[in-house]
Design goal:
single chain, about 350 residues
Length: about 350
Amino acid sequence: MTGSSWTTIATIGLALIGIGRAQGFEDGVVAGAIISGSYFGDKMSPLSDTTVLTASVSNTPLFTHIRYMMWTTVPAMILTLAIFTVLGISHETVSTEQMAHIGAGLASKFDISPWVFVVPVLTVVMIVFKTPSLVALFISASLGAVFALVFQTDALKEVAAGGSAIKGAVKALYGTASFGFSDKTLADLTESGGMAGMLNTVWLIICAMVFGGVMKVCRMLEAITLLFMRLIRGRTSMVSATVASGSFFNVVLADQYLAILLTGSMYMPIYHGKGYESRLLSRTTEDAVTVTSPLVPWSTCGMTQATMLSVPTIVYLPYSFFNLLCPLFTLALAATGIGIFRKK
């Protein structure tokens, strides 16, 4: 619904990591499940910045790109769910007290009723009607503030430190919002830094893009990419080279946005020249870059997810089954030719 793996992990992900620990699961298993689900939603949402960017770079209509990704994304997710189902069944539950504790803590501060689901439902409606991403995000954020003013007046006054609820709503959008929970899990779940809290990450992304831009202008990346391109003989080697390049850019540039831009722009002439549809390039780029970005410890995604979940990247990497399976399904379809068509 949000189109953001970061937002999902920073909210419900924090609650789930606490519940998983209370039930005796290893941190890596729970974090891997959270990462897998978050990036499945991120990848398939028309509100996702990476999804929109990938479709734009390859000149592919957004919903054509999303529908075509289902060829690899759905099988990868089904297999991921099967693996985690087996892990869940084979594990003996230790305690359910943590879930009850979180529920009681939220109920003590917030008015939780069916009405608050209007905002996510309307977000889904906007997605169905293909509302432009920026418009949908702006409307969703505005509705969230309005509903908070109606249903969470006391909580907003607490955010405003004794001020008005309107001041609290504005502060929650741009600055730090805290609700005084002594419990760390509840505090991590409800506290937010707003837009200001994202500045450190934004600066890191800008630095990574500047670094990548220098490497591109100096043609260092082009020289390295030529090594992959020389191996292209047919469909399978072309897709394999795209996956290898996208993953390589993720590791070297530490930024998924620049990796998407470079992979899409460099391989578009090759796909076009060989007569393949642009959606093949857009899907391959997503499978090679978006889902593998949180698996690189020094990338913006890897650092952010590891920090939010307090689980090192190397610990959750082996359990991020969805992220590991997507590139493999892409290569498998390229080898078999299933669902791959040339331009008419």
